[in-house]
Design a protein that fits this description.
Number of strands of chain B: 7
CATH superfamily of the largest domain in chain A: Aconitase, domain 3
Oligomer: heterodimer
Structural class of chain B: alpha/beta
CATH architecture of the largest domain in chain A: 2-Layer Sandwich
CATH class of the largest domain in chain A: Alpha Beta
Distance between the termini of chain A: 49 Å
Radius of gyration of chain A: 21 Å
Number of helices of chain B: 8
Structural class of chain A: alpha/beta
Bound molecules: iron/sulfur cluster
Strand order of the largest sheet of chain A: 5-4-3-6-7
Number of domains of chain A: 2
Strand content of chain A: 15-25%
Helix content of chain A: 25-40%
């Protein structure tokens, strides 16, 4: 039978299929962090169960951690307590733990690929919805809830009905100034935030083939924002080159054996999908969101749609625009902003900081803008310094912080104040996501950079 | 037994006719710092429920004494966004045992099922009928009948059937959870693991 990439990986991990029920799926890699794991460990303790495969489990601290003065004790007692719980749980169960200050520390979805934990054909889960990031390597990767974290700790398995399959094909060449983030925001704006619910997505076509691994991660990362369980891209030479010789990837004979399996990971010609979408890459512009969900995005040069032009409830729409302080028909270009956040597992990798630097080089931060530059990991931080990007940032009066999730979810002190506008390279513009009352505009690192030096929404193409 | 079992539920409902309610609204990230599963109900819909000085916002439905009950009725695409199970815990801890909507985000739905909150997906039309009935008379009771997979508006008798997969239904009826099941097949899992290449 002809199979899709998704079928191949899923089917080979099914331990048991329950009639009229879910599949029992074996999990190769489980990443955990401080926020969604403590209650799971508590559950294990209550059931008197050990962790079945500590060697397949990896812990990092990221959601709650401060991005300044990481060498000092964490000031917030609740955060400190959560970090301590993770450290103790990891130690008690023999799980490798990359805590605050550890040289491998960083956002879970940034460090996974960096150390080769992420591999093609693997099943990867984590108690964070953007686990879909790892699909960039041809893995099945998705976010889970805490009960499921407990399940995987106890049994290395998860119970899920097999999702339906969707393919999104984009051919053509991307225009100058259009980044992987724009491609993803474009897709979500077309499908809406629930358009792919119940599906697992495969991204196919020239545009995705041409993207770097970092770019593919950005796209797969955002799969969840259209409701998909996850997204994946067929592994190719780029994938193999990226993962080769990383700490946790197979070596020598084991590598050759793995390559045998990996080279089978593609969708068979003629394999069926439950739903297909096709777009033209050359029609995508730099994007920006204007509302309170990631589907409310549009080309940066367009005007905010009128309520009567959109699908869905007009009341919900106007509630959203009210929250943002915008009116239908407004143009986004020229709107003043207050904050810029570059970081997160969506756009906190080295390529994103290079893109940011490309625009800010030779300019100065706009006086009205507060900018938070937060690398996704210590590795990224190191590369920023080694490649001379830090000097560019400092010359332009930007300050670099230490790694973590930071203002992506604003669990630490990095909160955008109420009513302020933030252009963010992260993934969610929900009400209050970046702090109570904060107003988030999702965009690419180029759009964020253009806003950071001009103090308002600016088409980055006018600056490159 | 991992959680309370669920058979039938007869209760008034709390209407929240907003679409795309995301889990950041259900429970904002700053309340995720606990290491135990308790007290999340206090912060359910925190920023819609309270202003910045922690005063209740009168216009929000949870602060309106007219509406109460164990059933929360939400708009299309309920529970999108973050995978935080804390959202489902908050719904449960506040006292809801069932959420009704015309469409649920995947992870939220799973999380609910895993902790014993029943997500009931109805048609767009039936959802509208429920909203209208509850608005007209806040004392309107809904009957959720899990064994027969049926939801009914008691005052009018209008009803609709809903889907739930047989395995999950069995779990809900008995209060079992997935770990109970997986533990029972541990030997199979161990054998499977031996043959995994990664
Ligand atoms: S950066 Fe944001 S989306 Fe990514 S893991 Fe952290 S909180 Fe989740």
């Amino acid at each position: 039978m002809k199979k899709t990439l998704f079928d191949k990986v899923w089917d080979s991990h099914v331990v048991r299929s329950i009639k009229e029920g879910p599949d029992v799926l074996f999990i190769d890699r489980h990443m955990i962090h401080e926020v969604t794991s403590p209650v799971a460990f508590l559950g294990l303790k209550n059931r008197k169960l050990p962790v079945l495969h500590p060697e397949k489990t990896f812990a990092t601290a990221d959601h709650n951690t401060p991005t300044l003065n990481q060498h000092l004790p964490v000031a917030d007692p609740l955060s400190r307590n959560q970090l301590k719980a993770l450290e103790e749980n990891a130690a008690a169960h023999g799980i490798s733990y990359w805590g605050l200050g550890h040289k491998k520390n960083g956002i879970v979805h940034v460090v996974g690929p960096e150390y080769g934990i992420t591999q093609p054909g693997a099943t990867i889960v984590c108690g964070d919805s953007h686990t879909s990031t790892h699909g960039a390597f041809g893995a099945i990767a998705f976010g889970i809830g805490t009960s499921e974290v407990e399940m995987v700790l106890a049994t290395q398995c998860i119970m899920q009905p097999k999702p339906k399959k969707m393919r999104i094909t984009i051919d053509g060449k991307l225009n100058h100034g259009v980044t992987p983030k724009d491609v993803a925001l474009f897709i979500i704006s077309q499908l809406t935030t629930s358009g792919a619910t119940g599906y697992f997505v495969e991204y196919a076509g020239e545009v995705f083939r041409e993207l770097s691994m970092e770019g593919r991660m950005t796209v797969c990362n955002l799969s969840i924002e259209m409701g998909a369980r996850g997204g994946m891209i067929e592994p190719d030479e780029k994938t193999f080159t990226y993962i080769k010789d990383r700490e946790f990837t197979p070596k020598d004979a084991a590598w050759d054996k793995a390559m045998e399996y990996w080279s089978t990971l593609h969708t068979d010609e003629g394999a069926a999908f439950d739903k297909e979408f096709t777009f033209d890459g050359s029609e995508i512009d730099p994007m920006i969101t204007f509302g309170t969900n990631p589907g409310m995005g549009m080309s940066i040069t367009k005007a905010i749609p009128k309520a009567k032009e959109i699908q869905g409830s007009a009341t919900t729409y106007s509630k959203s625009l009210d929250y943002m302080g915008y009116r239908e028909g407004d143009s986004m270009i020229g709107k003043p902003i207050d904050y810029v956040f570059i970081g997160s597992c969506t756009n906190g990798r080295i390529e994103d900081f290079r893109a940011f630097a490309q625009i800010v080089k030779g300019h100065k931060r706009a006086a009205n803008v507060t900018a938070w530059l937060v690398p996704g990991s210590h590795n990224v931080l190191k590369a920023i310094k080694e490649e001379g990007l830090l000097e560019i940032f400092e010359a332009a009066e930007f300050e670099l912080r230490e790694p973590g999730c930071s203002a992506c979810l604003a669990m630490n002190d990095d909160k955008i104040p109420a009513g302020k506008y933030a252009v963010s390279t992260s993934n969610r513009n929900f009400e209050g996501r970046q702090g109570p009352g904060a107003r988030t505009l999702l965009a690419s690192p180029l759009v964020a950079a253009a806003a950071a030096i001009t103090g308002k929404i600016t088409d980055p193409r006018t600056l490159i | 037994m991992a959680y309370d079992s669920f058979h039938t539920l007869e209760s008034t409902a709390v209407p929240l006719p907003i679409e795309n309610v995301d889990t950041d609204q259900i429970i904002p990230a700053r309340f995720l710092k606990a290491t135990e599963r308790k007290g999340f109900g206090d912060n359910l819909f925190r920023d819609w429920r309270f202003d910045q000085n922690n005063n209740p916002k009168e216009e929000f439905v949870l602060n309106n004494p007219t509406y109460s009950g164990k059933i929360l009725v939400g708009g299309h695409n309920f529970g999108s966004g973050s995978s935080r199970e804390h959202a489902a815990w908050a719904v449960y801890d506040y006292g809801f045992r069932c959420v009704v909507s015309s469409f649920f985000a995947d992870i939220f739905k799973n999380n609910c099922l895993n902790i014993g909150v029943l997500p009931v997906q109805v048609s767009e039309e039936f959802l509208k009928t429920i909203f209208e009935a509850v608005e007209e008379n806040p004392k309107t009771e809904l009957l959720i009948d899990l064994p027969n997979q049926k939801i009914q508006i008691n005052s009018t008798g209008a009803s609709e059937s809903f889907e739930i997969n047989a395995y999950k239904k069995e779990n809900m009826l008995n209060g079992y959870d997935d770990i109970d099941y997986l533990e029972s097949m541990k030997e199979d899992i161990k054998t499977f693991a031996v043959n995994r290449p990664l």
